[in-house]
Give the backbone structure.
Amino acid sequence: MAAATQAHLTPSERAARGQAARKLAPRSSHGDWEPSPTRPDPIALLEEQAKTRVPALVPIRYGRMLVSPFAFFRGTASIMAADLASTPGSGYRAQLCGDAHLSNFGIFGTPERRFVFDINDFDETHPGPWEWDVKRLAASFAVAGRDCGFSRKQRARIVASTVRSYRETMRELAVSPSLMIWYSHLEIDPLLARLRRKLSTKRLARVEKDVAKARTKDSMRAFSKLTGVVDGERKIVSDPPLIVSIEELLDEAGVQLLDGDIRTMVNKYRRTLTHDRRDLLDQYRLVHIARKVVGVGSVGTRAWIVLFLGRDEDDPLMLQVKQAEASVLEPYLGASEYKNSGQRVVVGQRRMQAAGDPFLGWTHVKGGAEGAGERDYYVRQLWDWKGSATIEAMIPSALARYGRVCASTLARAHARSGDRIGIAGYLGRGSVFDQAMVSFAETYADQNERDYAALAEAVETGRVEAQTGL
């Protein structure tokens, strides 16, 4: 991240250092990527991750990754981290998302009940070269463009437009006051107002429908959708294997032990909240617990949904307690400064997001009902006005527009912790870096398809098991 010694440098000196970094790593060099002769077996990397996951859920992860090359890409943060480790770098660092593909951006509600667009997944967050996030984002648009059937020329325009947005936003931020960057965020209502002048009636209706749907996704909606009255008590209803109540996972003794584990975790988590948030949490009582399968790359990690009730059954709160492991970036960038991986996730999210979940915190458990070993977790609301774009329904111009929004959001996130002036100086005014990313993204999309085929072959030969349709 931005070095403390840079604080006394003038903006022109910082910009000059950024320009000088081009000698260390020419901007065009970012487009020259090919797999190393000693590249790790991608399936072996996935199998290594599976060792710490719930064995019964790992086949679901592979099944979800086999849906398409883009679905596969979503689960390959560890594979791409290994590939990025040998790529050129300008020497500038920032807090990274670590998995900045296009589906890890979306809309959610702020504590002030406004809709904002931002990064929404921080499981792999870690300080590192800002280029790594940009490369994963660019590659995700090339892969998604292929899934959508777009031509190579269309994909190139989409990726170039995306990266140009990152570069131009970073240059704008380089001349902005530091506090303005900290306050900067993208609200959805002004964005919709601009889109109304650019989108067709049909396309605008789809966007507004996605926003309206997200507005309904809150604790009350989760409560009505995921719970029911069982034997006279309000509980989370099982939908195995994706949602399984603790009573169906364990025997009576195990249920009591896990219930105690979760309550202990909640008590530890409470101490990571600010005092006003503790007061709010204390108004709720823990009612029920279930295990939930989430995402694509996260499938198999332990994730619990916890039902709380406040004044009465019309006052629910549903939290997600999700396991946090070491970031996939750590083998290449060094261990996190935080002993608890849940704290790593929370601190990274707070550094990068303009507005955060008021219930965001972390916790820890030792052994107990889940077996031997210690595990870290982070906690957040299950749903809080969350929504995402419908990528498969987009035409090329819409995907390009979405790419620009994602990239400008990523630039703001990096500018909060990195040297925005130095990075902007490195990127410059021209399109050299943009075009390099077009080349990189297409080359990496080729590699992603080869890795996807390798997973399909591993399933066919019985090396790994996949459970599809879930």
User: Anything to note?
Assistant: Residues 4-215+388-460 form one domain. The first strand starts at residue 93 and ends at 96.
